[in-house]
Amino acid sequence: MSETVRIGLVLPDVMGTYGDSGNALVLRQRLLMRGIAAEVVSVTLSDPVPESLDLYVLGGAEDSAQRLATKHLARYPGLQNAASRGAPVLAICAAIQVLGNWYETSSGERVDGVSMLDVTTAPQPTRSIGEVVSTPSLAGLTQKLTGFENHRGGTTLGPSATGFARVASGVGNGVGDGQEGVVQGSVIGTYMHGPALARNPELADYLLEKAMGVTLEPLVLEDVEQLRRERL
Ligand code: GLN
């Protein structure tokens, strides 16, 4: 890794609808506050996807935008290559669907994903909108997770994928198995907007520590803790 931690913000031009680009800013800010150099590298539909970055974040999107993203990621497999060497990837909402095996849009069209996650997604009878609180299943996380969900798709985990967290309130993956999100290798997917990392600093530091291979000094910010208390 170079001295500057390089955070890939993947396709914010199409996967930026729900403010999830804020996750990249949170990662950068938590490093800068510790005196560690960091930069956000924005990768748009005009760019091939680089495989050399330290970690990657992808945000949610509408069905039509997520189709454009799927095409781009299939054409330039930098994200797939980075994940294969263990670079952390955080995929929010539509990004879970795009990184999965296939997803069906609200209009019933089935689109092949890029198969980084062994999941499939199909529209549910009603849209899930509201706060979601969950208990992490991923080793290394101890704090309850909170976010805002807004999705029609329901995601089913295949045998190579495991749940990221168990739903305490809200909907999560939405197929009745009580799971919120998905973990497979170095890829974490979640339905939490927020942005998720602003509301869940333990998850932000988890991703940074995995990317850097170090243990970071604790960084407790009172306004973030206040927000957490309000949402739990
Ligand atoms: N279009 C997808 C769905 O409705 C994802 C929405 C999102 O990213 N919030 O399921």
UniProtKB/TrEMBL annotation:
The keyword Ribosomal protein does not apply. It catalyses: beta-D-GlcNAc-(1->4)-Mur2Ac(oyl-L-Ala-gamma-D-Glu-L-Lys-D-Ala-D-Ala)-di-trans,octa-cis-undecaprenyl diphosphate + L-glutamine + ATP + H2O = beta-D-GlcNAc-(1->4)-Mur2Ac(oyl-L-Ala-D-isoglutaminyl-L-Lys-D-Ala-D-Ala)-di-trans,octa-cis-undecaprenyl diphosphate + L-glutamate + ADP + phosphate + H(+); L-glutamine + H2O = L-glutamate + NH4(+). The lipid II isoglutaminyl synthase complex catalyzes the formation of alpha-D-isoglutamine in the cell wall lipid II stem peptide. The GatD subunit catalyzes the hydrolysis of glutamine to glutamate and ammonia. The resulting ammonia molecule is channeled to the active site of MurT. The active site is at residues 93, 193. GO terms for biological process: cell wall organization; cobalamin biosynthetic process; peptidoglycan biosynthetic process; regulation of cell shape. Pathway: Cell wall biogenesis; peptidoglycan biosynthesis. Keywords: Cell shape, Cell wall biogenesis/degradation, Glutamine amidotransferase, Hydrolase, Ligase, Peptidoglycan synthesis. GO terms for molecular function: carbon-nitrogen ligase activity on lipid II; glutaminase activity. Its EC number is 6.3.5.13, 3.5.1.2. Belongs to the CobB/CobQ family. GatD subfamily. SUPFAM superfamilies: Class I glutamine amidotransferase-like. The lineage of its organism: Bacteria, Bacillati, Actinomycetota, Actinomycetes, Mycobacteriales. Substrate binds at residue 127. InterPro entries: Class_I_gatase-like, CobQ_GATase1, GATase_3, Lipid_II_synth_GatD. It holds the Pfam family GATase_3. Forms a heterodimer with MurT. Residues 6-200 form the CobB/CobQ-like glutamine amidotransferase domain. This is Lipid II isoglutaminyl synthase (glutamine-hydrolyzing) subunit GatD.
